[in-house]
Design brief:
two-stranded antiparallel ribbon, mainly alpha, single chain, 220 residues
Amino acid sequence: MFVGHYGPSFAVKAAQPAIPLWLLFIAVQLVDVAWSVLILLGIEKARIIPGITASNPFDLYYMPYTHSLVAAILWSVAAGTLCKVLFGLRNWPVAAWIGTAVFSHWVLDWLVHRPDLPLYDDTMKVGLGIWNYPAIALALEAFLLFGGMLMYMRRTTAINAIGHFGPPAFGILMIVIQAYIFFGPAPNSPNELAVTALVSYIVFAAVIQWLDRQRRDATV
């Protein structure tokens, strides 16, 4: 899953307006940010499977440090604690929302991944495999993304035209990118995928922060 992960970031922002949206965009992808770095360092492993669909062109056969259930829980706790310290969040329940956003990544990956998500270490791998049905997987991503965005837009109000049309337009662009990932050519290597992913996470977070500044909390 890719853009569907951002649905929870919008939903959490609607529930906790004080949390920066760019931070939530990073939080929901933190597991994959760590995965990308560890792939580039050669710690976690992936390999190309000849003939597999572009929607999931890799066998993610060794990723206990990011995509195991135990690792996801640890990343979530660490992220919430770190954000509490670095960003001066008002209380632990607010920091817990950050941790929840991080953990949502594993839950949503469980829906779409083939059985390559270990429960702990590198054993007892799970995954419902919706990636085997790209059209259904793409529809699920769109539902999650725009469902969360709708919650966010109901909680906020635009202060200009960019704030009004920008988020939906950005959402459509994200879905177009997701469709290309599903149905376009596969990356040449896991390292290429890792670099592309890292750049995407940074760019998406920067864009949504700019768009979020064009809106304000409707309850204020």
